[in-house]
Amino acid sequence: MENIEIVKRLMNFIDNSPSVFHVVDNFEKSLMEKGYTKLSRNKKWNLKRNGKYFVSNNNSAIIAFQMGNNLKDNYFRIIGSHSDSPTFRVKPSPEIFEKNHFVKLNTEVYGGPILSTWFDRPLSLAGRVVLKSKDIFSPTIRNINIDKNLLIIPNLAIHMNREINNGYKYNKQKDTLPIIGLINEELEKENYLLNIISKEINEDINNILDFDLFLYDRQKGEFLGNNKEFFTIGKIDNLGMAHASMEALLNSEDSEFTKLVLVSDNEEVGSQTKQGAGSPFLRDTLKRIITTSGGSFEDFEIALDKSFLISADQAHSVHPNYIEKNDPTNSPLINKGPVIKVSARMNYTSDGVSSSIFSQLCNSVNIPVQYFVNRSDILGGSTIGPITTQNLNINSVDIGNPILSMHSIRELAGVKDQEYIYKAFLEFFK
Question: Is the Hydrolase keyword given for this protein (predicted)?
C-alpha cells in the first residue's frame, strides 16, 4: 500500500535524523540527489528558469525551491514547517559526579516535553561539535550521533516516592538528569564527556571548542494497531510535516510559479532566532529570488500578494480517554484527513478565505478535511504561521495532521493521514 511506504520513508528519515543538524543534512543529501544546487548566502546567486536550489541557515534550517518558468510574473507557493522537537540540551561543563561513583549529565529542558515519557528508556546524544580551524570566525563544524544506548533517566522507586501516581511534579533540575556511566578511575573525571566526543569523531580533544548536543530516544519507529492503522515514533511533530513537504517538492513537476519549502528551527522555543520563523531568513530569500531574476521591490510586493503560504504543523486528534478536552463541534479524528486550525486569538493564520482555498485544494483530489478549534476555556499553542506573516504580507492557512501524545518522547499518528498530507502538498505544487 502506498500509505505504508510513505510512512516507512518518514520513519526511516526520523530514525536517521537524531538532531536538527542531521535533519537539514539529510534533506540536503536528498535535494542534491534530485539535482538541486546548494547556494551560499555570502555569494551572488545566478538563478535560472525552472532551476532547483536550496540554502541553509545555521545548519538547522533550510529553504529549498524550484524557480517557476515565468520569471517576469513570478510568485510563490510556500509550505513552512520546523525541524525541532522538545528534548533536553546538554549544558556546558555538564558532568556531575555523585558519591564518587555515578556520572550524570547536567541538562536543560528544550521546549515543552512531557517529562515523564523520557524516563526509564535508552537514550543517547546527537548534535554538532565545533572544532578549531585556521580562521577563528569560521570554525569547523562536525555533526555527531553517538549511536549506542548511552544514557538513561531512572525513576525513583515507588517505595521512596509514594506520590508518583498521584500527580507528582518533576523538578527539571533534579529529577531529569540522565546517568551516563560509572567512574572506574579518578582520572576519568577530567573531561569525561569531551573524551567520549573526541573518541566518537576521532579528533584530538584539544581541537574541540564547544558543542550543541541534545538527548534523543533510541527506540525505532513502529506500526501498530489491529490493522496497522497507526505509527509511533518521536518527532512526528513536526518532521511529519517537514518530510511530506520536502517529498512533495522533490516529486513535483515544473510550474509557472516558484515552489518553496521552508523548514525553520527553534519553533518549540518561540522562533526568535536567526534560523527561526521570526527571522528575516524567508523574507530575504524570497526578495533575493525576485531581485536576482531582474525584478524590483515593487515586483516583490506584487509577487507576495499573489502568493500563498501553508503553515504546516501537527494538530490535536480527539483523545478517546479525554473527549471533554475538545471543542464540542470541531473534533478531528486520526485517519480522517488534514486539519485546518482556527483561532479567534489568531494563534493560527487561517481565516475564511485561506481555509476555503485549502479545503477546495484537498477536495479536488478527494482528500477529506477537518477543523480544529480549541475549547474556549483552554489556551492552545501556536505555530510558525503568525510569526512568519509578521514579516510577510501573504495569504496563509494553518494546517496539520491530527495526532495523539503530542510532545511525548513517542507520538502517535495515522498512516492514512500521512498519505493524505503528502498528496495535498503535491497538489498544491501543481
Answer: yes
- How many whole angstroms separate alpha carbon 32 and alpha carbon 356? 35
Q: What H or E segment, with its residue span, contains residue 142?
A: strand 140-145
- The residues, any chain, with a CB within 8 Å of residue 325's CB and separated by 6 or more, are 319, 375, 378
**Which pLDDT band, with edges at 50, 70 and 90, does 1 fall under?**
low
pTM, two decimals, is: 0.96
For residues 192-202, give the mean pLDDT.
96
The ranges assigned to domains in the chain are 2-85+234-428, 87-217
Q: Radius of gyration (Cα) for the chain, nearest Å?
A: 23
Euclidean distance between CA atoms 417 and 403, whole angstroms: 9
- Cβ atoms of 68 and 74 closer than 8 Å: yes
Please answer whether residues 278 and 271 qualify as being in contact, where contact means their C-beta atoms are separated by less than 8 angstroms.
yes
Specify the 3-state DSSP secondary structure of 22: helix
Paired strand residues for 37: 53
Which CATH number is associated with domain 2-85+234-428? 3.40.630.10
pLDDT of residue 186 exceeding 70: no
* 222-224 sheet: strands from edge to edge: 222-224, 230-233, 411-414
Rounded CA separation 387/382 (Å)? 9
